Amino acid sequence: CTWVDQKRASADLGSTNLQQCITETYVYDYMKRIEKMGLPKGKLTIDDGWDTLYTENGRRIYGNWQIDREKFPHMERLVKDMTDEGFLPGLWFAPFTLTHDCEIAKKYPDLVGDKWMQNSESGLNWMFIEPDPILEKYYTDIFTYYISMGFRKLKLDISYGNKTKMKKLLKMMYEIIKKIDPTVEVEAHVPDIF
Questions:
Q1: CB of 30 closer than 8 Å to CB of 2
Q2: Alpha carbon of 107 to those of 103, 110, 124, 135, 142: distances in Å?
């Protein structure tokens, strides 16, 4: 997973923006470093920062899950190259989290749940999404797109909300992915219920 290395790269730049360094070139360089060190090839997950993170007015956005084509202009080719180099391509998502200006929140405001984090400078709130059948179609379309691109592992992160809701959402996401392709691995980060 690129996350720990992204943190190191950001610190090297003197930045707290952990998503800024993750680009297509970064992933290619990451694969070369693994090869150079003689480390075993295996699952390689592109973590947070591959997706479009800002709206047209410059506000941070979560929930659309569209490729940032400035950072990843040839994502389809990258996934093929990862596979050809002996890696199992993985992709990070936070499907339980959204901001008010993402597509699904604007279309279905009742799906917006509890606030889990707020940026006091921007006033931006990250919200949890409420379990709802509407999400099945939404995430079926999203996950189908990336699985058909060649991603063989999906990392589902930031499920830090109400455990009853998070378990329902996680089960739903898992079932959606397995209906699309039962061979795709699902990694989920679920905090200890205690």
A1: yes
A2: 6, 9, 19, 12, 16
User: At 46, is the secondary structure helix, strand, or coil?
Assistant: strand
Q: Report pTM.
A: 0.92
**Residues 35-47, buried b or exposed e (16+ Cβ, 10 A)?**
eeeeeeeeebbbb
Under 8 Å between Cβ of 89 and 151:
yes
What is the C-alpha separation between 173 and 148, in angstroms, rounded? Answer: 17
- Degrees to nearest 5, angle at CA 147 with 143 and 151: 120
CB-CB neighbours of 166 under 10 Å: 20
- Assess contact for 104 and 62: CB atoms under 8 A: no
Q: Which of 120-124, 131-135, 147-151 has the lowest mean pLDDT?
A: 120-124
Structure tokens at 151: 């991603």
Q: Which of 158, 26, 151, 23 is nearest to 90 (CA)?
A: 151
Interior CA angle at 169 toward 127 and 2, to 5°? 75
Q: Give dist(CA 136, CA 85) in Å, integer.
A: 33
pLDDT at 9 over 80: yes
Confidence of residue 17 (pLDDT cuts 50, 70, 90): confident
